[in-house]
Design a protein that fits this description.
Mean pLDDT: 83
Number of strands: 9
Strand order of the largest sheet: 2-3-1-4-5-6
Radius of gyration: 20 Å
Shape: globular
Order of helices and strands: EHEEHEHEHEHHEEHHEH
Number of helices: 9
Low-confidence stretches: 35-43
Strand content: 15-25%
Length: about 300
């Protein structure tokens, strides 16, 4: 790159659970996006910033591309599609396997129509040997003409520097879009809501997490700066789910709250007093007004 400054926008796309948020958090060195082994962990487009002396990358972490089952699913697909149409580079994350399923085929079909560089990022390479990795690369190269193929492991911090180098090599010369110390343009309360939802995803039964949202009602630092008070509500779709989220004698809600509080304290670098409530809003995922209230706004059309 020399002395020139390169900058641009990179969309992270892929099937649910391939590790987009984990990779993005590792690249920027801070936890911004919720991470779990459940599908639909990322629902919104989360924008983060990586800056070094000679360049700046703005990452757009998008929801996993899968078939929509409700208005929330439609919104998530719209977010992913919108991100792909307004960036300089697409970074497609896949797992190190030679099996190309329906999800990957759908993404390949979409990517075959784009006019910008597509970089294939094979994630979780710490789980396979060199032979299987080579077979995976060969399989995907037959499907699409990639600008580059980069194998990485976010968990093992493997090849992340090379990935950054490759991304910069495909970005144009340009301005610094954000201050050098900016890591995200997300509101702190939105990140806090994601961290609470992440803990709920980790701890609750499989069927419940898809039907929950988290709304931070209040976040305020005490005048003496000793701690920050956070009041948040977990939204669910059924009374029976409310009972499970609260747990016997409030045990599950306390468990979620304790884990989430620690994450928010790490984020704020300050003690936190977290209070959680649970409310039932039947079929909120198909209610446009509630989706808007909970922050699921359609991407702005240019």
């Amino acid at each position: 790159m020399g002395d020139t400054f390169h900058s641009g926008f990179v969309a992270l796309i892929g099937r649910p659970n391939v590790g987009k948020s984990t990779l993005m958090n590792a690249l920027i060195g801070q936890k911004i996006a919720a991470v779990s082994d459940r599908a639909q962990t990322t629902r919104k487009r989360i924008q983060t910033v990586y800056t070094e002396e000679n360049g700046q990358i703005v990452f757009l972490d998008t929801p996993g591309i899968t078939r929509a089952k409700n208005k929330l699913g439609d919104y998530m697909l719209e977010v992913s599609g919108s991100a792909m149409s307004e960036v300089d580079v697409i970074l497609w994350l896949v797992e190190p396997t030679t099996f190309i399923g329906a999800g990957e085929s759908t993404i390949i079909e979409r990517l075959s129509r784009v006019k910008i560089p597509v970089i294939l990022c094979i994630h979780k390479v710490d789980t396979v040997d060199e032979e299987r990795l080579a077979a995976c690369i060969d399989t995907y190269r037959k499907e699409l003409d990639f600008a580059e193929v980069v194998p990485v492991s976010a968990v093992k911090n493997k090849n992340l520097d090379e990935l950054i180098r490759v991304l910069f090599s495909h970005l144009p010369e340009g301005p610094m879009f954000f201050d050098a110390d900016t890591v995200t343009d997300e509101r702190v309360r939105d990140i806090a809501a994601e961290l609470i939802r992440e803990q709920a995803l980790r701890m609750l039964d499989k069927e419940i997490p898809h039907g929950i949202a988290v709304l931070v009602e209040r976040m305020s630092e005490r005048p003496d700066g000793s701690l920050t008070d956070v009041d948040a509500t977990i939204i669910c779709e059924r009374e029976s789910h409310k009972g499970i989220i609260i747990g016997k004698g409030g045990t599950m809600l306390r468990k979620i709250g304790t884990a989430a509080r620690k994450e928010i304290e790490d984020l704020l670098e300050q003690k936190v007093n977290l209070k959680l409530w649970v409310k039932v809003r039947p079929n909120w995922r198909d209610n446009a007004m509630l989706l808007k209230e909970y922050g699921y706004l359609s991407p702005k059309k240019k």
